[in-house]
Amino acid sequence: MNLSVLLPVINERDNLQVLIPRLHAVLEPEHLDYEILAIDGGSTDGTQAAARELGARVVAQRGPGYGGALATGFAEARGEYVVTLDADLSHDPAFVAKLWRAREQADIVIASRYARGGMSYDSWGRRRLSRLLNWFLRRLLSLEACDLSSGFRLYRRAALEGLGFEIAGFAVLEEILARASSSGLGIAEVPFTFFPRESGRSHARLLKFGFELLRWVPALWLLRNSASAADYDERAFYSIIPMQRFWQRRRHRLIVLMARAAGRTLDIGCGSSVIIQSLNNAVGLDVNWAKLRFLRRYGIPLIRGSTFALPFRGESFECVISSEVIEHVPCEEVLFDEMWRVLKPGGLLVVGTPDYGGWAWPTIERLYGWLLPWAYHCEHVSRYTRESLSAILAQRGFIHETTNYILRGEMVMAWRKPQTPVAGAGLASRA
């Protein structure tokens, strides 16, 4: 089935008698195999009978609130794509065709009142408060969309699988976008003009919605600022925090200057960083599927795999980058043997990691843990010094070229694989 249309309803009989025929009139010319689902939250005015008579499938809502209606609808939907809209005629059903035609733009397409070209004809007070809430949440949660609270959306159903959400009320709309962005899903907006409902009583309460959002904001903020969030690395490069932005850009400059003319490059643990975006002949590898899914929009060759078993033939690359990776995994011999194996003779190895041999990084780490105890200051599994890492790489036959620092805390080292084979090189002693 191409499309499922979800209508969360409570006592919307009169509006459904107008809405459902208009939906049929819009969708049938598109030659779609579609269904209309009325997700009923306990109507007592004949809504269920009216929906069935008009060709909709009625499903009893499981779970409270608007979030429960969406969860029920997503579980019941059979279409490859799912459209959600209000049943009160504030969402013009003719616009469903526009959303359908924009389906290839992203995993979630929003009918947006606040994107350029959009408009809302709600009351002045509600409009101003809605704009303020959307602006505040957009900045706080680092989301690209302008209209986070629009429930008129098209979803690619496969993208919803495993996404999950917890909020029962209307704030679930912001939660879905926060989780989608953190999972690397694409979000796009299509300008839309909003008019207030034509009949019946609105089930949305803006102040209640605002208080619910404020209650959930801390959890959503932590979700969006987790290091595992798909776009975390890219956002750090553009951070409004001066030190974070400086650190990311200094690392970017050092590594890209080393690797830009090195030839075919493998970026191990690329994350969603701007480094992999800046290299013209690079392959990105990461174990975090969400980060790779985020990077797809840039047309970069990507593969999911482990740094302990690189999925490439020997001597495949002129350059290998491993930045901010080795400290997050156990220090095992195979880790460095694999870097040697996939690097061509004469190739360049760029390794970046904190230097625990000096005073700078241990001090920074303690301060970071004190200021942000919920963050990832204690996630480093292996702690290298310049001397210990140099000994590991020299033992395998790498030749040191240069070492640079970011504020004496993080070292970025360049090592060269010899052109001619060295007896025993690349294999650690296993005596």
Q: Would you write up a description of this structure?
A:
- By secondary structure, the chain is an alpha/beta fold.
- 37% of the residues lie in helices and 20% in strands.
- Strands 3-2-1-4-7-5-8 form a seven-stranded mixed beta sheet, with helices on both faces. The chain has a seven-stranded mixed beta sheet with strand order 12-11-10-13-14-16-15, sandwiched between helices.
- Helix 12 (289-295) links the parallel strand 11 and strand 12 (302-304).
Set down the secondary structure blueprint.
Blueprint: E1 3-9, H1 13-27, E2 34-40, H2 47-53, E3 57-60, H3 65-76, E4 81-84, H4 95-101, E5 108-112, E6 119-120, H5 124-140, E7 153-156, H6 157-160, H7 172-182, E8 187-191, E9 193-194, H8 206-224, H9 232-237, H10 242-259, E10 265-268, H11 274-278, E11 282-286, H12 289-295, E12 302-304, E13 317-323, H13 333-342, E14 343-354, H14 360-371, H15 386-395, E15 399-406, E16 410-416
Helix pairs in contact: 1-2, 5-8, 7-8
Q: What brief labels describe this structure?
A:
431 residues, alpha/beta, 20% strand, Spore Coat Polysaccharide Biosynthesis Protein SpsA, Chain A, Rossmann fold, elongated
